[in-house]
Amino acid sequence: MVVCGDDGLAHRLAAELRGVYREQVVLVVPSAGRAPQPMTGRARAASAALLDRVVTAVNRGNGGSDDTLVPGERVMEAAEPTEAVLADAGVERAAALALVYDDDETNIRAALTARRLNPRLRLVLRLYNRRLGQHIEELLDQAAALAGGATPGRAGHGHDNATTVLSDADTAAPALVATALVGTSKVVDAEGLLLRAVERRPPGPGEVADPGLCTLALLSATSNDPAGAEGSEDSGDQGPQLLPGAEAVAAATGRGTVVLEQLSYSGPPLPSRRGAVPPFASLFSARLRWSLAGLVAAVVALAVALILVTDDHPLHAIYVTLLDLFAINEPALDAPTGQQVLQLLSGLVGLLLLPVLLAAVLEALGTFRTASALRKPPRGLGGHVVLLGLGKIGTRVLTRLRELDIPVVCVEADPEARGVAVARRLRVPVVVGDVTQEGVLESAKIHRADALLALTSIDTTNLESVLYARSVRPDLRAVLRLYDDDFAKAVYRTLRMAHPTGLTRSRSVSHLAAPAFAGAMMGRQILGAIPVERRVLLFAAVVVNGHPQLEGRTVAEAFRPGAWRVLALDTAARGDGAAADAPGSGLVWDLPATYVLRAGDRVVLAATRRGLAELLGRRTRSTA
Fold first, then answer.
1. Distance between CA 387 and CA 409 in Å, rounded?
2. Nearest Cα to 535, choosing from 335, 274, 241?
């Protein structure tokens, strides 16, 4: 395996492949002479220590066996992944290549070069632009097919993807959103369905525990820290038990459980042009609309009065009233007195109409002008989420929150940040300013907020903002994005002791994303990852064909406690027209234990990292 990158994700990915999947890894990192980016300078300075620390944690989480490490890992330094560098890294003989640079263009250029050097190479790209990623994935798969290498196809139709495009922002966003809303990051988007792993307390005497769809894990018997600060997988003898069997669940006493729940998305669709063209009702204020309604009622009353006075045809009476209203009718000198009075009243209403029309024009112009400007938080806003930082991660989290129709107020120091345009399009209030300055968080209504998401790229800024928010709201739910694992652990424990009533979580984007990237390098479609205390449970979509542990076995026989468990069957991939559990989904979750898995089936399963490596690792190596 070859991993090329310039930040912490590359080192975590290399450690994941090396410590969990026992693969030979060549790690290509920038040379010391390259100008550091905001977060990569520190990552390069501590690369060796970070790699050793992550590998040690992975080994401890796997039971501490030393044979999980593959000796002789090679680390190269190169400013750019050029053709010569990729050839020196052994791309021609590699099974998979991961390009996880922070720059999309660098990853695309290197992917095109690598595909030419090795058409059968499995590629994993880190791209922020999702639409561009789809086109690049199709292009590289087509190039591989024409060169006689890998067969292009989508996962779930019997083929392994030759190219997989992932985004660390998309991988981490659901977990960050769930942490801010319900205090947990255990959420996975599986084929359009939202799955949530819910922690349940031990049942009391006479109580019956709700198993949900299935029991994913038994929590630590002595732990009061179910979510914890990630970065360590040291579980100990009383640590969490992943994917327990029915006997283990029945025998467990005094231990909480993690069960899987299925939640269908019911929020409004994300509008594509919302904010660019305001709705008609928003062009005019309520007072102006009432004024226009009053004038229309006056015109109708004058027309009815004219019909009663002159016995004229209704249409002709309305026409005459409008002529009088706009002062373009002949004076009613020889007309009856009643008609003359109505003409004078119509002229008076016409005079009142002029300022109302002028106000409507000015107000509409002002609305169009402010529609492209950043909105300010409304005065009575409350129960919202304050989001700090509109970079890559913050932008994805903002989109997810708006898809769930959650009120958000953003704080960003750079008015040209990439997420500011998204916030303007979604008409989300934005406070432009340095969050460390006094008064910025107050402008975001932090004292009435329900949660704070500190997602800037600077650890100290995130910590300072949370500490200040805690002084205003001790019970505020706070989520920090912290890069360093040891720092995150120390911050979490200290804040938990200082503010026991407030929920605090520290999250590392690279920690959440690394298992998904590693799984894709092994040739699988990873749907997501769920942290269970300090361990990780993966969800993957797997084609049964070629896996003797699954093919020809019933769902009950295919279940291996502590390793993997079949959760759902994808009927869309099988093409038999079977009904799915939810509209728009091809997944059937309530599978009978006696159902026999066939070669053409595609299943969604939950697995530990070592279990998934054991299930599919040999097949991946043989086909590579």
1. 6
2. 241
Q: Is 490 helix (H, G, I), strand (E, B) or coil?
A: helix
Q: Average pLDDT in the 466-484 region?
A: 85
The single-letter DSSP state of residue 281 is G
> 162, 502 in Cβ contact below 8 A?
no
What token pair was written down for 363?
A: 């107000």
What tokens does 121 get? Answer: 């190479």
Q: What angle do CA 62, 64, 68 make, to 5 degrees?
A: 70
pLDDT confidence tier of residue 69, bands split at 50, 70 and 90: very low
Q: What band does 368 get if pLDDT is binned at 50, 70 and 90?
A: low
pLDDT at position 7, please? 85
Q: Which of 338, 333, 331 is nearest to 308 (CA)?
A: 338
The Cβ of residue 374 has, within 10 Å, a number of other Cβ atoms equal to: 17
pLDDT, residue 184, reads 60
Phi-psi region of 63 (alpha: psi -120 to 50; beta: other; left: phi over 0): left
As given in the structure block, the two tokens for residue 269 are: 């669709």
Helices 286-310, 314-325: axis angle to 10 degrees equals: 120
Q: Is 598 helix (H, G, I), strand (E, B) or coil?
A: coil
C-alpha–C-alpha distance, residues 524 and 605, integer Å: 12
* Averaged pLDDT, 415-432: 89
Q: What is the pLDDT of residues 127-152, one digit of tens each?
A: 988 889 889 988 998 888 887 644 44
3-state DSSP percent of the chain in helix, strand and coil, to 5: 40, 20, 40
CA distance linking residue 442 with residue 447, whole number of Å: 7
Residue 495's CB is within 10 A of a number of other CB atoms, namely: 22
The closest of 53, 11, 46, 49 to 29, measured between CA atoms, is 11
d(CA 516, CA 68): 19
